[in-house]
Amino acid sequence: MTSPPAQASTSVGIVTPQTAQFDTPIALRSGAVIPRYQLVYETYGELNAARSNAVLICHALSGNHHVAGRYTEHDKYPGWWDNMVGPGKPIDTNRFFVIGVNNLGGCHGSTGPSSINPETGKPWGSRFPLVTVDDWVETQARLANRLGIEQFAAVVGGSLGGMQALQWSITYPDRLRHCLVIAAAPKLTAQNIAFNDVARQAILSDPEFHGGDYYAYGVTPKRGLRLARMLGHITYLSDDVMGTKFGRILRSGTFQFGYDVEFEIESYLRYQGDKFAASFDANTYLLMTKALDYFDPTHHYESGHLSEALAPAKANFLVIAFTSDWRFAPERSREIVKALLDNERNVTYAEVKSTHGHDAFLMVDPYYHEVVRTYMGNIAL
User: Fold this and answer.
1) Mean per-residue pLDDT for 175-193?
2) Active-site option among 65, 281, 358, 365
3) Most distant CA pair in the chain: distance in Å?
4) HEC letters along 323-367
5) Known catalytic residue: 135?
6) According to the annotation, is 229 in a ligand binding site?
7) What is the 8-class DSSP label of residue 180?
8) Active site residue 324
9) Quick one: pLDDT at residue 8?
10) Which of 225, 315, 364, 372 has a Cα-to-Cα distance from 53 of 20 to 30 A?
């Protein structure tokens, strides 16, 4: 009697982050210069001999370099896009060499506000300059140079990551063959900027913020960061999902006539806020939201037309939107599609019916995953 064949693993397994040091100064769009910095990144799969199968994953606001796999066998959670990246998954690491990188300004190993400023020997804190999507693309390109990758098979991102992917197609049109822009927009609406500013004000007004130099006081503005995350989390979900998961369920079954947690949704948001505040840096949250606000490819053009801004792009595009995403609604993705079509670029557009709101791009959805799988499967290496 023979044993049945073992089921193929769909996980990249145990992964180890790597660090790249850069001693060449980088001039940021703000005019500030960072003399040296480091980027933390992870890779999955193998780079082929032709170096033609590299895929860059750009992370969203609170993401980082840990895209897939686990650090130990006992890790409770895998990387943030483990359902998308791995052997046999839509972004198949049997075919592709996938790179996840923590952006400059991050708080998970790349140089950021909590890093030591070599000029002072203290954390950068309030001295760390604001960064933009353009700056991130430049640092990612330098990392690609370091890894010997002249051209990506694809640059992929959701939300703020999608904006980075879009900027890649403009800044380095010859360095990517495909661009996947998921749950993103060509620029924020006034409403989105308003949400970000309320979140920032929650942090800036926290008594423990100390002008951004809270590291020296041995404290962190957790209350402000918690409130900022609670606000953000509300906008990432849809009303349908919140209604289905929580409704008006009371924790004790009856009104308590006070301001402590009574409804399950209150408990959920406070839990998410506390969890985030314990693992993320408030200064990084501030600069990430400002990078979102600043992103606008049309900024350099008097016409303000997205079609003109996207004219340099040469990549083939997959643009995906989700019907219940009210923060980056499908019509925002269709603006990108129209501008690309105006330039006669090859564009595939999918509008996925989903109830998960903006966070749908992180969820397992058979149709959505099949769209990505099919597109990635047709990329020639």
Assistant:
1) 98
2) 358
3) 75
4) CCCCCCCHHHHHHHHHHHHHCCCCEEEEEECCCCHHHHHHCCCHH
5) no
6) yes
7) E
8) no
9) 62
10) 364
